[in-house]
Specification:
Radius of gyration: 29 Å
Distance between the termini: 70 Å
Protein name: PNPLA domain-containing protein
Mean pLDDT: 89
Pfam families: Patatin
Shape: globular
Number of strands: 30
InterPro entries: Acyl_Trfase/lysoPLipase, PNPLA_dom
Keywords: Coiled coil, Hydrolase, Lipid degradation, Lipid metabolism
Number of domains: 3
Structural class: alpha+beta
Helix content: 25-40%
Largest sheet: 10 strands, mixed
Length: 746
């Protein structure tokens, strides 16, 4: 177990924007820090024993003693706010959940009433909820309402101010644990609404020529440290002291200022830092800042959501990591973890097929160009190129959840988490669960690489205890073992896992309450803004102005009701109880399917194989990805003899009861492979009064999600088939194309 010339693994934690889904990021970070803290406490206990010549227990001998140090905390929007709050928590010890003032020694989902939660939990889950009302109620408060052209945001931003103020520690006494660098960099992405003018020089224009090409740079970063460290990067770090401790909170509010929704923030950059930034930009990138500040003036600008331009600042994070490595710890290895609640992930084996676009109308063009701006702002070519050398050291944590709804806070473009605390608790717990799986089964290296980067002589017993097989569940593939870089010490006593959180949408009462608050705010904004509308109408035509004045009451009501109706309709569609549980399907549809539907025989054969267990089987249909499930030992993995050749899992008893072996691994269905089915056409839904499915007619482009018998969600679309087997013990969906190709009427 001896370690000669110990090395450290250096981490950069980059957190993407997420609006209220920052609760997910907070859950990930809390579990990561809690795991590091539990490990650090045990390492210190072991080291004390070794120093005193005491014998270690068998369990203590299994604990690896290498070092991991967080060097960079970066983020945009909600991710930047999380970075700031975590950094603050190292000043008052609120960075891990405590029970009786000590770390919790067991697996748990979320803190209970007797626990002392982290500052991150308080900020992201509790938010502004208190005895006076919910966070949503406070965001809808009308005390800030004035004419629309004078308002800074559509929502009342005062609750955000109070949350930020609550996060600031009473005293700046930066005392990070050993797994956090005392020189940790806190980097927040911001969007500068004024922009910094950059002078681009060309070789055919000499220095005496006043002509130059000036571009505006709107994307930027605010860099903070609690202890100064000289770094060869563009963004100098402001040192957080007792006098400047509020600066980080203002920066956090700025990076989280979602455009239009929340108020923009005024940032004051000390003149010394701005001049230093200009000099660094010239030195590092040969770019001149074409802006001269008046004497004794600071640089002041208005900032909004950093995620509007740079939502995943991975490139700058990696550059700071690289700079620290070169200047201070060249023998250590850097790793970067990106936490992204809304990643753009796809099936890596599937390639987009080219389709020649049509010509766009003006409205279509406007929608496309907004999307193009957004996509291009997220595609940072420089970041990608700079990070190529770290490709095998970049890791992504993102929401993974079986059953329904990955993120409760992910609806309404990330704003749904403001509606109630339970949504935020859901995502916080999911973040903890995903981080637990990440640390145990994904964040590791081969034994040879592990020894190289840690210089730690791990024992065979330690490796056997902690290792995981990256080929687990893959058929006919040799085992390939990895050693976790951050051991989760909970596994010493138990392999228990955090439970999958249960999503429960808004009740009808909660939705009605939310609509009432929204309506009140809309009416007040319209009433406050109406004089400006009258004035604008009068400037166009005196008659128009007179009509607007004469019909003032009617027009105010009409404008308010139109805006409210659109809002209420959108919320109704969003929070509609789209997840129909299996018990509801059995209760409402099984008799109607048997009575109104038809009996069908499966006619197409299948290829089948027996699984060794642990395989992830993703079912793809003509509509795209349908479900994903994990096999148990002995399950059959079936592949339909159809054009799509979709794969799915069947339990051994069902398979053996319904299929006959024909040749090799090919099987044909017997007469027990029959189902009752009804096609969900608009006519059938109306005629048979299929409760809960009317939305398929009203909004045919939006599916309804049902719980399949295997506890995955299925997207139910118009013209699909709703099916029950002969046993009448379950209800599930089969897509129209797959059903027509596979089944025939008896």
């Amino acid at each position: 177990m001896a370690t000669d010339n110990p090395k450290a693994i250096r981490l950069g934690i980059c957190m993407a924007g997420a609006v209220s889904a920052g609760a997910y990021t907070a859950g990930v970070v809390d579990y990561l820090i809690e795991t590091l803290e539990r490990w650090q406490q045990k390492k210190e206990q072991i080291q004390r024993k070794l120093n005193q010549g005491e014998a270690l227990t068998e369990m203590e001998k299994l604990v690896p003693l290498h070092n991991v140090v967080i060097e960079v905390l970066s983020g945009a929007s909600a991710g930047g706010m999380t970075a700031a709050v975590l950094a603050y928590s190292f000043n008052d010890g609120s960075y891990y959940t405590k029970k009786n003032n000590d770390i919790i020694a067991r697996n748990y989902n979320i803190p209970d009433a007797l626990d002392t939660p982290t500052k991150l939990y308080d900020v992201w889950v509790n938010m502004a909820d208190d005895e006076k009302g919910s966070t949503f109620k406070k965001l809808m408060n009308t005390d800030d309402v004035m004419p629309l052209n004078n308002m800074k945001s559509l929502l009342n931003s005062a609750p955000i101010d109070r949350i930020a103020e609550k996060a600031i520690p009473r005293n700046i006494q930066f005392n990070p644990p050993k797994y956090v660098s005392e020189y940790v960099s806190v980097l927040l992405s911001i969007t500068n609404l004024e922009g910094i003018p950059i002078d681009i020089r060309f070789s055919n224009i000499d220095s005496n020529n006043p002509t130059c090409n000036v571009l505006k740079m709107h994307s930027g970063f605010l860099h903070y440290q609690f202890k100064g460290q000289s770094l060869f990067i563009d963004y100098p770090a402001e040192i957080i002291t007792e006098a400047t401790k509020g600066h980080l909170a203002v920066a956090a509010k700025a990076t989280g200022a979602f455009p239009f929704g929340l108020s923009n923030r005024k940032i004051v950059v000390n003149r010394m830092f701005f001049e230093d930034f200009k000099n660094r930009l010239k030195l590092h990138s040969n770019m001149n800042v074409n802006l001269k500040l008046p004497e004794d003036k600071n640089y002041v600008f208005n900032a909004v959501d950093g995620g509007a331009i740079n939502n995943e600042p991975i490139g700058t994070t990696m550059r700071i990591l690289d700079c620290k490595k070169k200047e201070y710890h060249p023998d250590d290895e850097n790793y970067m973890i990106l936490i992204d609640p809304f990643p753009t992930v796809t099936n890596a084996a599937k390639r987009d097929e080219y389709c020649e676009p049509k010509e766009y109308t003006l409205l279509e063009q406007a929608k496309k160009i907004v999307k193009a701006f957004r996509n291009q702002s997220m595609f940072k070519q420089e970041d990608l190129l700079n990070g190529l050398e770290m490709e095998h050291k970049r890791y992504l944590i993102y929401p993974i959840k079986r059953k329904f709804y990955f993120l409760a806070c992910g609806l309404i473009e990330g704003f749904s988490g403001f509606f109630k605390k339970e949504f935020r608790e859901h995502d916080y717990q999911l973040g903890r669960k995903n981080c637990q799986a990440f640390l145990r089964f994904y964040f590791g290296e081969s034994l040879e690489k592990y020894r190289q980067i840690t210089n730690y002589n791990i024992t065979e017993e330690q490796f056997i205890k902690w290792r995981y097989n990256i080929n687990y569940g893959k058929a006919d593939v040799p085992e390939l073992w990895r050693m976790p870089l951050i051991p989760d010490l909970l596994r010493l006593n138990s392999e228990d896992e955090i439970e999958t959180p249960q999503y429960n949408g808004l009740t009808s009462t909660e939705l009605a309450t939310a609509n009432k608050l929204i309506k009140k705010r809309i009416e007040k904004v319209v009433n406050a803004s109406y004089p400006a509308i009258q004035k604008a109408g009068k400037s166009i035509n005196i008659v128009v102005g007179w009509l607007l004045k004469f019909f003032s009451r009617y027009m105010r009501k009409k404008i308010s009701s139109t805006l409210y109706d659109k809002s209420a309709s959108y919320l109704s569609d969003t929070f509609y109880p789209q997840t129909l549980k299996q018990e509801d399907l059995l209760l409402f549809f099984i008799q109607k399917i048997q009575a109104k539907g038809r009996l069908y025989q499966k006619t197409k054969g299948v290829w089948a194989r027996i699984s060794a267990g642990g395989e992830q089987i993703v079912s793809w249909t003509s509509d795209g990805r349908e479900t994903s499930n994990i096999t148990s030992v002995g399950d059959y993995v079936l592949q339909n003899d159809t054009k799509i050749k979709e794969e799915y899992i069947v339990k051994p008893d069902k398979f053996q009861d319904r299929y006959i072996h024909e040749k090799e691994n090919y099987y044909v269905p017997n007469q027990k492979a029959r189902v009752y089915a009804i096609q969900l056409t608009a006519g059938n839904i109306a005629a048979f009064k299929l409760e809960g499915l009317q939305q398929l007619i009203d909004n045919p482009s939006n599916p309804i999600y049902i719980e399949a018998p295997w506890h995955e969600s299925q997207a139910l679309r118009l013209d699909d088939y709703l099916v029950i087997p002969l046993a009448k013990n379950e209800v599930y969906r089969i897509g129209q194309k797959e059903f027509v190709e596979t089944y025939k009427i008896v």
